[in-house]
Amino acid sequence: MPGIFKQITSGALARACTAALLWAPIAAGPISFVSRAQTQPAEQGEALARYNAALNQFKAILRERRAQIDAKQPLPNLPGQAVYLARNNMISTYKDLTDALPSKIGRPNKFAIPPAYFDADNEPLLDEYTQLFNIMQAPPGNAQNSATPFKDVVDLGTAIARAKGLDPATAHAAGRLSLGLFFAETNGNQNIGNARSNKYKGSLQTGVSEDQNGRRKWAAIKASIAAFDPALIARDDKEEARVGNGDHRYNHWTAARDGLLNGAAEIFPQIPAIVRALPNQIDQMKLFELIQIVPGPTKAALASGNVANYRVSDPKIMGYLRNNSMFTFGQTDRAKTSATYREILDAMWLFNDKFERALAKFNEIKSQPGG
Predict the structure, then answer these.
(1) Which of 1-5, 66-70, 226-230, 359-363 shows the lowest per-residue confidence on average (mean pLDDT)?
(2) What is the pTM (predicted TM-score) of this model?
(3) Would you say residue 15 lies in a domain?
(4) How far apart are CA 126 and CA 122, in angstroms?
């Protein structure tokens, strides 16, 4: 998914230089310094002004999209992009503000965003943000929903893992991690479009070529799954007949199946190493997602035997992380040139709520008969 990169501006650099500037009068005399105490109020004022501007911009784009939707007006191409960038800018400038003025850090918020990044008084704005995206990304009229979307993902992930020869415990973990991936990609919503991309659609947000690749891989393992889970294959046959020649990305079952096989299933053999390295199940989901985002460094971290302390410093990798909401918000975070995997996992706080809901849903499924 596209993101935004920001750099320290020349104006910010000039302010930093000014803070350390020494001066002396033409007449001989003692050298004087501009103190930090003198420059601090100006920097705080500038940070507050930038945050207020970003907050007002976010409110304005929310009002604009809501008015367009309520009036049934045509929306611009990629209607969610401007809304997304405005949200990021609000979070970024608030972090800059709390860096300059720590007293602005307030109470916890219901989204579990660290308070240094988000003012809890603005919770209604993020509620509206979510509601607008739900509308802008609503499934098309011909989408084929499932009555059991979460169980489908767990069952498919588990069966695919077993077909790849993994033991029952690993297959169980594969189902849980697959559900985490579904929440990471779509917030647990089936068959959605994408308000920020014209390419990625459906329950696992795949492009046409990715979906076709997953279908080919499914055909290669379908017979082996039939040997130990004929009921799952019977369900698959029904869904294939149902979708026919339509877009497999808008049938939840086939979208989840093909999406998992296109990419995530290749990582299933890494699950035992992930579980050993990270006992916390939310951390496991995060690392599983990182294998999707930055596979090379993440596999190297696993191979190192010390995942938490493995450090990445490649500018491209840091860029990929920023593009996926890690070290994205505020000048201090964006200035980081390297990070350990423990720091990266901790920076994935926007994923926390999604993965916690995925874990709760997984435990609910497994507590039911036949789960």
Answers:
(1) 1-5
(2) 0.86
(3) no
(4) 7
**25 falls within a domain:** no
- Strand, helix or coil at 159? helix
* Neighbour-count burial of 198, counting CB atoms closer than 10 A to its CB (0-12 exposed, 13-18 middle, 19+ buried): exposed
Same domain, 180 and 108: no
Of the residues 136, 166, 200, the one at which a domain ends: 136
Question: Does a structural domain hold residue 76?
Answer: yes
User: Cα–Cα distance between 176 and 203 in angstroms, integer?
Assistant: 16
Task: Give yes or no: residues 145 and 90 share one domain.
Answer: no
Nearest to 195 by CA among 82, 78, 87: 78
109/244 same-domain check: no
Angle at 84 between CA 108 and CA 142, to 5 degrees: 115
Q: What confidence tens digit (pLDDT) does each residue in 99-115 have? A: 999 999 999 999 999 99
Q: Model confidence over 140-154: pLDDT tens digits?
A: 999 999 999 999 999
The 10s digit of each residue's pLDDT in 63-105 is 999 999 999 999 999 999 999 999 999 999 999 999 999 999 9
Measured CA distances, 2 to 13, 207, 320 (Å): 27, 14, 10
CB 260 within 8 A of CB 174: no
Q: Is 144 helix (H, G, I), strand (E, B) or coil?
A: strand
Distance CA 339, CA 342 (A): 8
CB-based contact 321:342 (threshold 8 Å): no
* 10 in a structural domain: no
CA separation for the pair 21, 17 (Å, rounded): 6
What is the number of domains present in the chain? 2
Among residues 101, 136, 171, the one where a domain terminates is 136
Query: Are both 93 and 168 inside the same structural domain?
Result: no
Q: Which long-range contacts (CB under 8 A, 24 or more apart) does 34-39 make?
A: 39/15
